[in-house]
Design goal:
There is one protein chain. By secondary structure, the chain is α/β, with parallel strands linked by helices. 24% of the residues lie in helices and 19% in strands. It contains ten helices and 18 strands. Strands 7-6-5-4-1-10-9-8 form an eight-stranded parallel sheet, with helices on both faces. Strand 4, helix 5 and strand 5 form a beta-alpha-beta unit. Helix 4 runs parallel beside helix 5. The N terminus is likely disordered. It binds 4-nitrophenyl 6-deoxy-alpha-L-galactopyranoside. The site of 4-nitrophenyl 6-deoxy-alpha-L-galactopyranoside (JFZ) has 10 residues, from strand 8.
Length: 501
């Protein structure tokens, strides 16, 4: 490696220093725990909650994430210089370092609140857009790693109240989305970059311990405050919980989770809040999930349904490759198309997960124009095909190369992304299955399609096949959905003999 290349790599590495370690549990099936041990700080809720709030979560299908905060002002650049090579992501711009970083940057950033005055912000406009897109829940950043609170917290001055805007943003968002029938979850970062009482390492000296205890009390106060202020919220989406200081505070975090749940009995909390006494995060030392659903599918999805072992989960996704906060400049990077996003949505719901698409509004409260366009395209698609998206479950069939199966009661849906050249959509069903497709229509217009059993008679094949014929005249520029009714198979007239040889 050339010298200057090496320097660049080192500088970029520095920008990521605070980033969490890669969690191997999200890239393959989880390893079985050999021997269960005594864990005092394990899960506080059952692995599979059956209450109405959790059932509702399972039926959301599509969600919206919004990252909004002071980082929206620079939009990943400052005075014409891009932070792309100096910060891990646009909402991480405070950590901008290396040759492109402005002089005294952190100090500039920490004073951005004096300019935060999004006159164009109208929570009702966002909520209406989310509704039109088909989002059933929202995850909204109340406070990101920079520590700036978008609600007037009593426990710090670093809040929206001391900005020129002054008004409570969290309240406007909660009210507007709730009025549209969209459930609200609050994103909350534990880690704070500019709080003198916060440490990334576990506090070791008595002074550090005093300070960190203050930080823990402050965290508790803010969370109880959020529940008091916005009792209609359905859950918290925690982040920034990977530092040793937090990991070592397992006794505190266990009690805090208990307290939050007692205060708000149906609260939904993902697996990214706390760890057990052995430092095991997301899953405790026995492999039991800590929280109500898997919260590690961030910009990734399980390759196989079996990896999930029946757990609830959601996948949160950016439109650019990475970067959750506003990014003025989308040129020169691949940004996902509505086809990409609908594909991911169907992939998630076909495996019982929710898909949560992130938006990063600008410093004036406007979505990026490309986000507006994508929201409209996704909404247009969902209006026609939503039946295959909401309230559906994994269909129990082997994955199809043509698209994704979902199921609701006796209806089987196949969202086709890859149309066969011969216009025959072949569906594999286990030979011994008691339920098989009996009728098929195109969901978008109700047109009946010819469906026939194609018993191709392959020995050693566990499956038999059902063929749905697509009319050649049917043209679609987007994925389309076949809706099939499931019923008993017709009794076979002749039982084919196994090959003898
Ligand atoms: C975190 C934040 O650092 C980021 O800014 C954004 O808010 C995102 C939603 O969450 O980033 C993470 C956190 C965890 C992992 C990856 C990125 N992880 O577990 O792999």
């Amino acid at each position: 490696m050339k010298y200057n290349k090496l320097i660049k790599a080192l500088l970029l590495g520095a920008a990521f220093i605070n980033m969490p370690a890669v969690f191997s549990q999200w890239t393959g099936p989880r390893k079985k725990v050999e021997k269960r041990i005594d864990v005092k700080y394990g899960p506080l809720t059952p692995a599979h909650r059956t209450d109405a709030a959790m059932e509702r979560f399972r039926n959301y299908g599509l969600g919206q994430f919004i990252h909004w905060g002071l980082y929206a002002i620079p939009g990943n650049e400052w005075e014409g210089v891009s932070a792309r090579k100096g910060a891990a992501a646009s909402e991480w711009i405070r950590t901008w370092s290396g040759p492109t970083a402005p002089k005294d940057w952190k100090n500039i950033y920490d004073h951005l609140y004096k300019q935060f005055n999004p006159r164009g912000f109208d929570a009702k406009v966002w909520a209406k857009q989310a509704k039109e897109m088909g989002a059933r829940y929202l995850i909204f950043t109340t406070k990101h790693h920079d520590g700036f609170a978008l609600w007037p917290s009593k426990y710090t001055d670093y809040t929206i109240k001391t900005s020129p805007y002054k008004k409570d943003i969290v309240k406007q968002v909660v009210d507007a989305y709730t009025a549209e029938g969209i459930d609200v979850f609050l994103y909350y970062s534990i880690m704070e970059w500019n709080n003198p009482n916060y440490f990334s390492k576990a506090p070791s000296t008595p002074e550090e311990k005093v300070k960190f205890d203050k930080f823990l009390a402050y965290t508790r106060n803010q969370l109880l405050e959020l529940l008091d202020n916005y009792p209609e919220i359905k859950g918290f989406w925690f982040d920034g919980t990977w530092d040793q200081s937090w990991i070592q505070a397992y006794d505190f975090t266990y009690k805090l989770e208990k307290e939050l749940r007692e205060k708000h009995p149906k609260l939904i909390i993902g697996s990214r809040f706390r760890n057990d006494e052995y430092g095991k995060r997301h899953f405790d030392s026995n492999g039991d999930m800590l929280g109500d659903y898997e919260q590690g599918w961030e910009r990734k999805m399980p390759k196989e349904f079996e990896w999930l072992e029946g757990r609830d989960w959601d996948c949160v996704m950016t439109i650019p490759p990475n970067g959750w906060g506003y990014m003025k400049d989308w040129s020169g990077i691949y940004t996902k198309t509505s086809d990409d996003l609908i594909d991911m949505l169907m992939n998630c719901v076909s495996m019982n997960g929710n898909f949560v698409l992130n938006f990063g509004p600008d410093g004036n409260g406007q979505m990026h124009p490309e986000e507006d366009k994508l929201a409209k395209e996704i909404g247009d698609w969902i209006k026609i095909n939503g039946e295959a998206v909401y309230g559906v479950r994994h269909a129990g069939l082997a994955p199809s190369k043509l698209g994704y199966f979902t199921r609701k009661e006796d209806n089987l849906y196949l969202t086709v992304f890859n149309r066969p050249v011969n216009n025959i959509v072949r569906i594999a069903v286990p030979k011994n299955s008691t339920e098989v497709p009996t009728t098929a229509i195109l969901l978008q217009n109700g047109q009946a399609l010819e469906l026939k059993h194609a018993d191709i008679g392959l020995d050693l094949d566990k499956n038999t096949y059902y063929d749905v014929a697509l009319p050649e005249t049917f043209v679609s520029k987007k994925a389309f959905v076949l809706k099939m009714t499931l019923g008993s198979p017709k009794t076979q007239s002749e039982k084919l003999m196994d090959a003898k040889m």
